[in-house]
Write a structure and sequence with these properties.
By secondary structure, the chain is mainly α. It is about 95% helix and about 0% strand.
């Protein structure tokens, strides 16, 4: 038997040691891969939370800007309405003054024609 072992030149203990070393390296790699996956998941969760926070802030800013713009538009509309009303009032007053001036002349003309027969 000893001759058979020598003729093969092969030691099973060395094979066992290599298999043990390979198995240990596989476990180490699995641990590293597991840790890397956990870190990646944690990083992804933080990135999602940050993106959600940024999105929420952007929505709030957008809503604030929309409200401010709406208020500016309402103020501008009110200003234009006031200016238009003021102009209309002034035009009506001017027309009334002209009508009053013409009414006096018209009354005088009627009186002259009817009473004086002109």
């Amino acid at each position: 038997m000893s001759a058979q072992r020598a003729s093969h030149g092969h030691d099973h203990r060395t094979d066992d040691n290599l298999l043990h070393l390979i198995a240990e390296k596989e476990r180490e790699l699995e641990t590293l891969v597991g840790a890397a996956k956990q870190e990646a998941a944690s990083t992804l969760a933080r990135a999602r939370a940050e993106a959600e926070r940024i999105l929420s802030e952007a929505r709030q800013q957008s809503a604030t800007l929309a409200r401010e713009q709406e208020q500016r538009l309402e103020a501008e509309t009110a200003r234009i309405t006031r200016e238009s009303a003021d102009r209309g009032t002034k035009e009506v007053e001017a027309l009334r003054r002209r009508a009053a001036d013409r009414q006096t002349a018209a009354v005088q003309l009627v009186v002259d024609r009817v009473v004086k027969g002109i």
